[in-house]
Amino acid sequence: MFHTLRQFISGAQILFVAFGALVLVPLLTGLNPAMALLGAGVGTLLFQLVTGRKVPIFLGSSFAFIAPIIFSIQTWGMAATQFGLFAAGFMYFVIAAIVRWRGMALIEKLLPPVVIGPVIMVIGLSVAVAASGMAMGQGGGQQLVPYGVSLTLAAISLATTIIVSVFAGGMLRLVPILAGVIVGYIAAIFMGVVDFSGIVNAPWFAMPTFVSPEVNWAAALFMLPVAIAPCIEHIGGVMAVGKVAGKDYTSEPGLHRTLAGDGLGVCFAGAIGGPPITTYAEVTGALMITRNFNPVIMTYAAVLAIILAFFGKFNAVLTSIPLPVMGGIMVLLFGTIASIGLKTLIDARVDLMAPRNLVIVSVILTCGIGGLMFKAGNFSLAGVGLVSLLAIALNLLLPADRHHDGIVEGQDI
After folding, report:
1. Are 58 and 14 in contact (CB under 8 A)?
2. What is the DSSP letter of 60?
3. Distance of CA 398 to CAs 355, 357, 391, 403, Å?
4. Alpha-carbon dihedral 247, 249, 250, 253, rounded to 10 degrees
5. Which of 153, 275, 307, 340 would suit a FRET pair with 405, their CA atoms being 20 to 30 Å apart?
6. What does the pLDDT look like over 11-68, one tens digit per residue?
């Protein structure tokens, strides 16, 4: 009995660590936080089913889809976006099949760092304008919260997040986003910009509102390549957890099974109206501190997430968080995503003096951040989806640079 209670508490701790990022994605994109909790909980259980509950991983909302979701909802609407997110899960199955068939060699050929790096940077920077707008209290072209109040709240939430992530120790350092939201929310209460009416009117227990997906192949083709980045993130996450736990999960249960499990979770989350899910680095960090690698604790975390999805008051509190509080978090968050893309290039020592690499990175960044769109009849492709395909095509078509130590072969010195 005591052992079970301890495992449940460990599971609750895992959910607490993942919670800030888990609910942040739906709050930024307009999706239902209850569906994010339900999608993460059921998605994690589906992952455990496929992998035989051998990997201590919790799957939560993926940041890679924030910008594409915002764009897709504006372009095709919520129901079509849900279908696109459901379809994104099939990219995991494709990559799982490739890994099963050819190992990682083909993946590395199609998606080297010079492709993945700038695509990840575009994921973060393509909605930089939206982040700044939210920090200034602006949304839909209107000033929703007074400008001065907005900047103050954004600064408070941003400063808190920075201080906790840089200076805090122990478990607190794993929840900088949650800390920033809580402190910013408290400040917003004192400044009188929190509307409590939704919380008062919300029932204690409520069935999450399900919206049926609407078949839209343009939205699906837009979302499919977006899933490439979190697929690669998943592979890195599984390897990182393996290093922490001292086991090789890429062999047992196998990378193809972990990818398929994650993909199944993404399909479920998209079908019910939640954001796609992915492995969480902060959960790996929590495992490093607690040294508890039993996958059962992820089962408890998943079950607790499902239970919270049915608490009406709880979800009303989440949706009452003022716009600039979230905007302050976004300023750091989207820049962090872009920094990860930059780190990918640096770690792989990608030579940007080589014309081939310079062309790929430059074209991807300009097209992605500039909002280039490809249209053919009723079909359109833009953002991360477009630049992902463009990056893969450029990488395959452009010949390798004949460089050695920065000197072109055959050149007279």
Report:
1. yes
2. E
3. 10, 9, 11, 14
4. 130
5. 340
6. 776 787 677 678 778 877 888 888 999 999 999 999 999 999 999 989 988 877 887 8
Amino acid at 235: I
| 8 Å CB contact between 163 and 300 | no
For residue 132 the two structure tokens come to: 């700044």
Query: Three-state SS string across 140-199, please?
Result: CCEECCCHHHHHHHHHHHHHHHHHHHHHCCHHHHHCHHHHHHHHHHHHHHHCCCCCCHHH
Contacts with 6 (C-beta within 8 Å, 6 or more apart), sequence order:
none
- What whole-number percentage of the chain has pLDDT above 70? 91
Listed in sequence order, the residues at least 6 apart from 240 whose beta carbon sits closer than 8 Å to its beta carbon are 281, 284
Which tens digits make up the pLDDT trace of 195-229? 888 788 878 887 777 778 888 888 888 888 788 77
- Per the listing, tokens 């839209």 go with 216
CB atoms < 10 A from the CB of 413, how many? 3
- Distance, in Å, from the CA atom of 307 to the CA atom of 301, rounded to the nearest integer, reads 10
SS3 69: helix
d(C-alpha 386, C-alpha 111), whole Å: 15
Q: Across-strand partners of 142?
A: 139
Length of the chain: 413
Q: What is the pLDDT of residue 341?
A: 80
pLDDT of residue 140: 65
Distance CA 40, CA 349 (A): 35
**H-helix or E-strand spanning residue 385:** helix 383-397
382 forms beta bridges with 373
